[in-house]
Amino acid sequence: MARSSRPSASKTDAKKNPPRTLLGTIGAGLRKIPTTFVLVLIGLFIYFRSPDEAEPPEPQPEDSIAHEEPQPPSDLPANISPAFWTCVYRTDTQLSESLWGDVYYGMEASDAGRSVSVSVSPEWANLTPEQRSTIVELVATTWQKNSQDLALFTPEAGLETVTLKRAEDDAVVAVWTPSDGVEIVEEGSES
User: Quick check: helix, strand or coil at residue 96?
Assistant: First the structure.
């Protein structure tokens, strides 16, 4: 009798743990695919949303630029107002950082701010007349906007002339006035 109980025990073990066949393994894998698939998707989501992912920088409002500009020096001459100094600083910075920054060399302005003189680099000679006019208008409108923002002038007064000169020889290359607009000075002629 002991013999008969032994073979029956091995038969129940065989029923509980059937031998692994290729078909049995594939079946077990198919039953577990949905869980595995979900885990893989979660892993991919976490991987691509990691904190070291570069996020695009938020554009800074234009007001933040005004907070970064320096204050006028304390030893500013009495005949130069802080608003005038700030206008020169802002205009110079904006022109230097503009698309035409390689042509712009520097600027001077009269104490009253009604006359502006700009030096241009040798790149000026390589520009078309339309590009030259654009630069002169850019200088005039930038100065006018900054002087208006800073209340540099009374409403009836304003910018009277913008003169562009070559940096190497101070030869006048263009002039702007409110009444005449842009006048490009031809090579070889002096104004």
Answer: helix
Report pTM: 0.61
Rounded CA-CA distance 107/163 in Å is 10
What is the domain count for the chain? 2
Task: Look at residue 118 and tell me if it is in a domain.
Answer: yes
Strand-pair category, 115-120 with 161-166: parallel
Residue with tokens 């906007």: 145
Same domain, 36 and 126: no
**Token pair of 104, please?**
């712009």
Residue 112 in tokens: 């009253």
Domain hosting 27: range is: 2-48
Summarize pLDDT for 68-106 with one digit per residue, the tens.
778 888 888 888 888 888 989 999 999 999 888 899 989
One domain for residues 137 and 180:
yes
Sign, CA dihedral 40-41-43-47, equals positive
